[in-house]
Amino acid sequence: MQNTYVAFDVETPNSRNHRMSAIGVVLVEDGVQTDSFYSLVNPETEFDAFNISLTGITPRMVRNQPSFPVLWELLRPLLERGVLCAHNAPFDLGVLGRCLLDYGIQWQPMGEYVCTCQMGRRLLPDAPNHRLDTLAEMLGLPLRHHNALSDTRACAGLLQYYMSRGDISRFHRSYDFRMLHTVSHEK
């Protein structure tokens, strides 16, 4: 049974979702949050007003921040430590995949992941909805929504809650980074 999960969340500068303006990563090892990483990212592209208002991240804030290829040297070893985990994982995996493609960075063709939103639909069926902010509030998890590290910590907290309720291996799926989509379903 896999016991290391890599929760992550990205914020994007525009509706194209092909670059990131921030990323948060939290390692969950044997059910415990053990390490975290956060960085603003210079997306080297335009920002939409909607994304600025949602995330609070402006072009000026990221002007002197590292670009994705520079950060990749730090991110890659973290992301390879375990099963990837995100809330609404296909979105975050898609942004990661498009960044890799846009910058011509070769990585693993397939990635194993779990989605705390999908798990919530099965394990918390009576929740009013399965958005991160709703589930975090239900479980008393702190959250400053649309801050990549705060969202990641809340996602990791959801994962820990689900893990405490039993084996979550049936929620493992695979993501094809070459084709940018999920290729397998729940076991």
> How many separate structural domains?
1
Strand adjacency order, main sheet: 3-2-1-4-5-6-7
The value of Rg in angstroms is: 16 Å
At the fourth level of CATH, the homologous superfamily is Ribonuclease H-like superfamily/Ribonuclease H
Q: How many strands?
A: 7
Order of helices and strands: EEEHHHEHEHHHEE
Q: Beta fraction of the residues?
A: 15-25%
Number of helices: 7
Terminus-to-terminus distance = 14 Å
Indicate the mean pLDDT. Answer: 95
The CATH topology: Nucleotidyltransferase, domain 5
Specify the biggest β-sheet: 7 strands, mixed
CATH architecture: 2-Layer Sandwich
Query: Structural class, please?
Result: alpha/beta
Question: Stretches where pLDDT falls below 50 for ≥5 residues?
Answer: none
Helix content: 25-40%
How does the SSE layout of this entry go?
Blueprint: E1 4-11, E2 22-29, E3 32-40, H1 49-55, H2 59-62, H3 68-79, E4 83-86, H4 89-102, E5 110-115, H5 116-123, H6 132-139, H7 148-164, E6 173-176, E7 181-182
Helix pairs in contact: 5-7, 6-7
General description of the model:
There is one protein chain. The chain has 187 residues and is of the alpha/beta class. The protein has helices spanning 49-55, 59-62, 68-79, 89-102, 116-123, 132-139, 148-164, and strands at 4-11, 22-29, 32-40, 83-86, 110-115, 173-176, 181-182. The chain has a 7-stranded mixed beta sheet, with helices on both faces. A hairpin with a 4-residue loop joins strand 6 (173-176) and strand 7 (181-182). Helix 6 (132-139) crosses helix 7 (148-164). The longest helix has 17 residues, at 148-164. The protein is globular, with a radius of gyration of 16 Å.
